[in-house]
Design a protein that fits this description.
By secondary structure, the chain is mainly α. Helix 1 packs antiparallel against helix 3. The radius of gyration is 46 Å and the shape is rod-shaped. It has a domain of 75 residues.
């Protein structure tokens, strides 16, 4: 083979190699670009999902905070009612109000036309009614129920 012919073949091979490399480079870049676009679309979709989840969680957090405030208020209200009942129970200590002589009281009341059982029933109704009012107000969830 002549040197000129070999040079032409070498040039031709190089030309095809360059063209093939350029085609491969172009194809490779197109493939990479397509994959990058697909990944970008997937990432955008995932970001949209996360933003939706974030918004939902923020709403749930607001609801939890509102519920927590409501429960804190409710607990305080119930504790206040229990304190009122406790204070009422401690308002008549035996040191100040000793146990009465029930037999003597019955005789005195009977002489005056009264019965001890009627007075006892009245006192119990009064205590239970008052405790019931404290409890009803504490359990009320609306202002109308607290009246």
């Amino acid at each position: 083979m002549s040197a000129l012919y070999e040079t032409k073949i070498f040039q031709c091979i190089n030309w095809y190699r360059d063209k093939y490399d350029n085609m491969n480079d172009k194809f490779y870049h197109e493939c990479v670009a397509r994959e990058a676009e697909e990944e970008l679309a997937a990432l955008r979709s995932r970001i949209a999902e996360l933003e939706t989840d974030n918004h939902r969680l923020a709403q749930e957090n607001i609801n939890l905070n509102n519920n927590e405030d409501f429960l804190d208020d409710r607990i305080a209200k119930l504790e206040d009612a229990l304190q009122q009942i406790k204070q009422w129970g401690e308002a008549y200590p035996l040191e100040v109000f000793p146990e009465p002589d029930f037999a003597k009281a019955r005789d005195l009341l009977k002489a005056g036309g009264q019965e001890l059982s009627a007075i006892s029933a009245y006192n119990m109704r009064h205590v239970v009614t008052r405790v019931s009012e404290i409890v009803r107000k504490a359990l009320a969830t609306s202002p109308e129920e607290q009246k």
